[in-house]
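forwarding from the other thread:

> can someone predict this with magnesium ion?

sure thing
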Amino acid sequence: MAVDPLIELRDVNKYYGDLHVLRDIDLTVGKGEVVVIVGPSGSGKSTLCRTINRLETVESGTVALDGRPLPEEGRALARLRAEVGMVFQSFNLFAHRTVLQNVSLAQVKVRGRKKGEAERRSRELLDRVGLAAHADKYPAQLSGGQQQRVAIARALAMDPKALLFDEPTSALDPEMINEVLEVMRQLAREGMTMVVVTHEMGFARSAAHRVVFMADGRIVEDRTPEEFFTNPHSDRAKDFLSKIL
Ligand code: ADP
Ligand code: MG
C-alpha cells in the first residue's frame, strides 16, 4: 500500500561486542500499517524493536520517526520515545498499584495531565480493552491475558503514533492468547501503526499488511502475508515455516 512513512530505519547496524546483531537494516513502516516480524530465536527481532525507540543505540545508520531523526539522548529523545508505545512479553505492571493507577501514572508524569483527566482517559481505555469492571483491582488479581490488556491500555494512554509489540502473547496460557490478539486486531482495524513480533501466524495472516522475516540480523524477506506464507523465496524462510506451520 502507498503510505506516508512513520518509522524509517536506514542502513542500521548494531553490534553487541563482536556480535553483529543488526545488519544493514532498511525498514519503512507507513502510517496505519501493521508489520509483523517473524524469524528464528536470536535473529534480532527484539533488538530491532528496541532500536526503533532507541532503547538501544546503533553503531551506524539512522532511525527516524515521522520524518524526524531520533536524537541520541536527552529530553528530545524522551519526548519522541513516548510517541512509540511498547508492549513486552512480561507485562511489567506495578504490583502495588491498581489497574487504574497503572494506566494513569505515566499520563501524569510524562504527559503532564491532571490526575482526574488521566483517570477519565484511563477508564475509557480500560473499557476499550474490555476491563472497565477491573479498574480498582491489583494486577495479581487479574489473569495474564487481562494484565497484558492493561499493559496495552497503558501504552495507548500516551497517545502513541505507533505501538511495538514484542511477543505479547508468548507468556500467556493458550486460552488467553486470543483475547489479547483480538484487542490488537481491533487496534489494527482502527488504523493504529503497529510493529508486532509474534509466533502467532494466524494473526500475521489475518492482521498484517506485511510480514518481515529476519535471520541472523538481516531482513531476508519483506512481503505480504499471502506471498510470504504461500511462496516464501528464501531457504531460510522455507525452513522456518516448515518448523512452525
Ligand atoms: P530475537 O528477539 O530474534 O530472539 P534478540 O534481538 O533478542 O533476538 O537477540 C539477537 C542476538 O543478540 C542474540 O544472539 C542474543 O543472544 C544477542 N543479544 C541480545 N541482547 C543482548 C545483550 N544485551 N547483550 C549481548 N547480546 C545480546
Ligand atoms: Mg526476542
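The mean pLDDT is 94. thats all i got for now
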